[in-house]
Write the structure tokens for this entry.
Amino acid sequence: MRILLVEDEKKVAEFVARGLRAERFAVDVSRDGDDGLEMALAFNYDLIILDLMLPGLSGTEVLKRLRRQKPQVPVLILTARDGTAEKVENFEAGADDYLTKPFAFAELLVRVKALLRRGTTDRSSILRVADLEVDRLAQQVKRAGKRIELTSKEYGLLEYLVANTGRVLSRTMIIEHVWDESFEGLTNIVDVYVRHLRSKVDVPHPKKLIRTVRGVGYSVSDESEP
């Protein structure tokens, strides 16, 4: 699942992003309100974590504008402002939860998972291709009913492929989504991880789901290869 973190305090942003990535979430980070709103509207995030005191547009204004176009995406306010009037204003503007700084990461993680569960009413948390099942909330993978143990990056890669079933994803797209950064000249790392995935997901089964599109990238498909 992909989360947008809009936070201008560098240390806080790095702390939260690092913790969430360790929990197998893909995280995009924005440091100001204008850029954060643009990213929130441009991409389909599963959750947005939003600071209030931001350069450019305030977090409250970002929230109000976001709600006009994307009323369903869960938004967690993360801020040092703990006044009752402040909380009421932002809940009325469309916030789903409110966590004040300083905070324990364990509490943030619990709130994030609760919001993600709530936000999956219109978007299934279970992804399926043939007999392959990816549970995006539990972050578990099964094939033919048998649990498959994956590393964090293997899981992130498989979830991204399965969430885009039938679509060919380039190595650059995969790097930017799964690794959350650009690895100039190192896109062969994707090939390595695809081999790892195939050995666990495809090799033990007669039907192969992970496809290579020569010169383009990779995809997951249930259709028979020509």
Notes: The first strand starts at residue 2 and ends at 6. The chain has eight helices and twelve strands. The two ends are 32 Å apart (CA to CA). The chain has a mean pLDDT of 88.
